[in-house]
Specification:
With 88 residues, the protein is mainly α. 61% of the residues lie in helices and 0% in strands. Helix 1 crosses helix 3. The longest helix has 19 residues. This is DUF3791 domain-containing protein.
Length: 88
């Protein structure tokens, strides 16, 4: 089956964002996993209007925020562990 130009554009955009995540220091498999973990929600919120570099930086920012441990002594730290969800 032949891909439509829109599907091709989305695939190329995704590949470019994954490549940018690799340049930000994520290994290949981890870059893909991080991308797919955040892609659907971010696409829904921001669309595909961001350039790939900015989209990758936002994904990186969200991933770092999710991985950051709550520090009760830091007044700027907010516990959000109960808000995160895991997609299957």
């Amino acid at each position: 089956m032949k891909r439509s130009s829109r599907q091709t554009m989305i695939k190329l955009y995704a590949q470019a964002v994954i490549s940018e995540l690799q340049q930000l220091g994520y290994p290949n498999d981890q870059a893909k996993a991080v991308f797919f973990r955040h892609y659907r929600d971010m696409k829904r919120l921001f669309g595909l209007e961001q350039n790939v570099c900015d989209f990758a930086k936002m994904i990186d920012e969200f991933e770092r925020a999710m991985q950051k441990k709550h520090d009760p002594s830091d007044p700027n730290s907010i516990a959000v562990g109960h808000l995160t969800r895991v997609r299957q």
